[in-house]
């Protein structure tokens, strides 16, 4: 993906070249995308799906942030686009992000393709990866069957926090550009304007000078993440704004 005027866009030319490599067997699509916060449009998903099918590349779709979508954007389930896409993909879901139940081990996957299902189950059983438990099953069903009202309130709160945080960064910390997320509760921060020569200097600045602990951008790719940090704003708004205030004060001292 390329950063174009403050928004990440899929480089379809580059993607097509890579999918044409016979060594490539699967494309993982993270939608909504972490860490950039993109919520891919139906047109983008269709184009990715068609390229994969044309090159006989399987598709894995991580939709763990699917509930957390902001104003002006719409989540499109990949397997719901067409029967062909449903039979050529595996979808991964988890209520953990929306409902904060990661400790219950509530992740799940599904596919419409019986052969893929058989192979996935064989592999999962062989590696003893079936971590289901009665508490996780109950938690998953409770979230999806009874959590609509909570999810709506949660997303509304996150949306307002996101708006305030992005506005604050772009107005008061001019050396940092906040990539306005369309989904998720992460802000991808372009910190290259701070002028640090290495990623270690940037991390030390955030932790030692600003006294905030952010996710290192290079966790998401050495080349693509250098000069970037990920800010998690799934917290009380006062805590989020205090963290940004600390970053501003530290940046002003540079």
UniProtKB/TrEMBL annotation:
Pfam families: Aminotran_1_2 (PF00155). Its EC number is 4.4.1.13. It is an enzyme of class 4 (lyase). Its cofactor is pyridoxal 5'-phosphate. InterPro entries: Aminotransferase_I/II_large, Class-II_PLP-Dep_Aminotrans, PyrdxlP-dep_Trfase, PyrdxlP-dep_Trfase_major, PyrdxlP-dep_Trfase_small. Residues 7-244 form the Aminotransferase class I/classII large domain. CDD domains: AAT_like (cd00609). GO terms for molecular function: cysteine-S-conjugate beta-lyase activity; pyridoxal phosphate binding; transaminase activity. Keywords: Aminotransferase, Lyase, Pyridoxal phosphate, Transferase. Belongs to the class-II pyridoxal-phosphate-dependent aminotransferase family. MalY/PatB cystathionine beta-lyase subfamily. This is cysteine-S-conjugate beta-lyase. It comes from Enterocloster clostridioformis. The lineage of its organism: Bacteria, Bacillati, Bacillota, Clostridia, Lachnospirales.
């Amino acid at each position: 993906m390329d950063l174009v005027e403050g928004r990440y866009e899929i480089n379809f030319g580059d993607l097509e070249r890579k999918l044409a490599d016979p060594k490539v067997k699967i494309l993982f699509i993270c939608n909504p995308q972490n860490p950039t916060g993109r919520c891919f449009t139906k047109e983008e998903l269709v184009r990715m799906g068609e390229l994969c099918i044309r090159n006989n590349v399987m598709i894995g779709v991580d939709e763990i942030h699917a509930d957390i979508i902001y104003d002006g954007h719409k989540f499109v389930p990949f397997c719901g686009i067409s029967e062909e896409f449903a039979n050529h993909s595996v979808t991964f879901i988890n209520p953990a992000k929306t409902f904060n139940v990661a400790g219950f081990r509530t992740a799940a996957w599904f596919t419409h393709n019986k052969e893929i299902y058989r192979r996935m189950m064989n592999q999962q059983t062989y590696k003893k990866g079936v971590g289901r438990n009665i508490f996780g099953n109950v938690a998953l069903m409770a979230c999806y069957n009874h959590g609509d009202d909570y999810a709506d309130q949660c997303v509304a709160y996150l949306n307002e926090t996101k708006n305030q945080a992005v506005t604050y960064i772009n107005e008061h910390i001019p050396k940092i550009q906040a990539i306005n997320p369309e989904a998720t509760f992460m802000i991808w921060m372009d910190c290259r304007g701070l002028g640090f020569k290495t990623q270690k200097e940037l991390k030390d600045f955030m932790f030692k000078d600003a006294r905030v602990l952010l996710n290192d951008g290079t966790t998401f790719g050495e080349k693509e993440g250098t000069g970037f940090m990920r800010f998690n704003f799934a917290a009380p708004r006062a805590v989020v704004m205090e963290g940004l205030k600390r970053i501003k004060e530290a940046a002003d001292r540079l």
